[in-house]
Amino acid sequence: MKDARTKRGNRRTPALPFEAEPIVMLPVISSMAMAVGYDRNEHILQVEFQSGSVYQYLGVDEDTWEDLHSSDSIGSFFNQEIKGRYECDRLNNAD
Fold first, then answer.
1. Contact indicator for 11, 5 with CB cutoff of 8 Å
2. Which of 22, 42, 47, 70 lies most in the core, judged by the most C-beta atoms within 10 Å?
3. How many domains in the chain?
């Protein structure tokens, strides 16, 4: 009996690395941010600041996202309700 794994055409290919879908960013009128986005499945808020830096804030509930997005002042809401309250990761470096 032949081992199928040794046949040239039947070798298993390694799994491709997982790539998350990008978060859809919505432009905002704010002196602090250029755009914000939210991943409802992963509870991730993503903010692109005026400097060009992009950060993801982890564990942000959907109500907080809705409140941020509908706020009269994105910057004030962000500073009062998000900054320093959630773990965050920087995604890129500003030029």
1. yes
2. 47
3. 1
- Residue 10 inside a domain? The answer is no
- For tokens 């500073």, what's the residue? 79
**What's the chain's Rg over C-alpha atoms?**
20
Is 3 within the bounds of a domain? no
Alpha carbons 11 and 36: distance in angstroms, whole number: 44
pTM greater than 0.70 (yes/no): yes
The answer to whether residues 53 and 63 touch, using CB atoms and an 8 Å cutoff, is no
What sign for the dihedral angle of Cα 34, 78, 87, 65? Answer: negative
**pLDDT tens figures, 52-83:** 999 999 999 999 999 999 999 999 999 999 99
Q: What phi and psi, each to the nearest 5 degrees, are found at residue 48?
A: -105, 115
